[in-house]
TrEMBL record, chain A:
CDD domains: Commd1_MURR1. It comes from Solea senegalensis (Senegalese sole). This is COMM domain-containing protein 1. Pfam families: COMM_domain (PF07258), COMMD1_N (PF17221). Residues 118-187 form the COMM domain. GO terms for cellular component: endosome. GO terms for biological process: copper ion homeostasis; negative regulation of protein localization to cell surface; negative regulation of sodium ion transmembrane transport; positive regulation of protein ubiquitination; regulation of proteasomal ubiquitin-dependent protein catabolic process. InterPro entries: COMM (IPR017920), COMMD1_N (IPR033776), Murr1 (IPR037351). Belongs to the COMM domain-containing protein 1 family.
Automatic annotation (TrEMBL), chain B:
One of its GO terms (cellular component) is nucleus. Residues 135-178 form the COMM domain. Belongs to the COMM domain-containing protein 5 family. PROSITE patterns: COMM. It comes from the Eukaryota. This is COMM domain-containing protein 5.
Amino acid sequence: MADAEAAKRLSGLLNGIAQSVFYQKSDVTEQLLKAELFPELPLGEFTALHDKMKGLLRSMASADMDHAQLEAFLTAQTRKQGSGGVSAEQAAALSRFWKSQRVRVRESVLAQSRWEPGLRGISWRVDLQAADSQGVAAHSGPVALVELEVGRTGQDSEFVCLEFDEARVNRVLKKMADIQESMDRIIQQT
Amino acid sequence: MAAKDSSFLGSRIPPEIESMSKNLKDVDHEMFRKILKAVVSALEGKDSREVMKAIAESSAIPQERLSYIISGMYRVLSEAIRIPTSSLKQEAFKEDLRELRIPEDFITDFSSVVFGNRRAALEAASSQKDPHLPTVEDLKWRVDVAISTSSLARALQPSVLMQMKLSDGTFHRFEVQQ
């Protein structure tokens, strides 16, 4: 009974640390976690526990550990003497946490390293100009209208509306082909 | 009055053209040709302010009357250009201008602009004035591979950084992920 309770509290702590460190939820503070999960633990002891778990999670995230790496890592931690080590229960909690959160943590951490706005979407439509205020547009061809959705992580999108004639579309497609070629070369090399 | 469809200018003659025809009697042929040249230049999208200023300064015609003449001439030409040559024939155009009591010499000059070899350039310039969205003038790109970050020892994530320069002068820079 006590074990299940302890396991729950540890899981709660790991999830709480992840919220703040990886998922950018600044309202999940250390004080909040203590109050919710370990109210009776002396502050010094809680801080030590919190910091140790945080450090371990950071190492796991940094190395993006797979199952084998995680096992080896946690085993080494449990073998450490003194307060630097990790208990069997803690190792189990860390293992459970990582199994479910690994991918999400990696995605989140990668997103944090992107500081330029990202392309979130493209919509397009091809129009044929029938007439305009300058007269019957017999000499204009089809026009592509493109809307780019662009935004930074966590911020609202900006919409950039553009138009392209056939020549411009071809120019852009050529550039895309060059980019694809460049990326294929890189993928082959790594 | 011979039965004829309404003028290429529509059933109501635009006011600046009415004013122009009243004031053209004070303009000699040489002056008319100078103004016409400047108006055509403006229609082609060139900056004609200096030329117009020079004309105004060298002419005895009062500024206000001159401005009616210039805007009227501009309007005659822009209205004629927007109608395809299949719909407005040279003779009909000349007839319409005769009804405005514009001197025959001037009509010939107008006609040679509308139906001559400068027409294509005028049509091209006027299509620039249509409502348009910005176009991409230049697109630069770069493929990056993030090797590691402050939180990730081995990232190895390729991404493409793009910078677009638009026809309205703005720049947009953004990343494209796989």
